[in-house]
Amino acid sequence: MNYLLIRCRNGGICSVVDGDLLPYTQYNYSIMASNSVGSVTSGWTTATTREAEPSQLAAPICQTNNNRLDTIQLFWTSPAIPNGLSMSDLIAYIEIYLYLVSLLQNMQLNI
Question: How much is the pTM?
Answer without folding.
Answer: 0.55
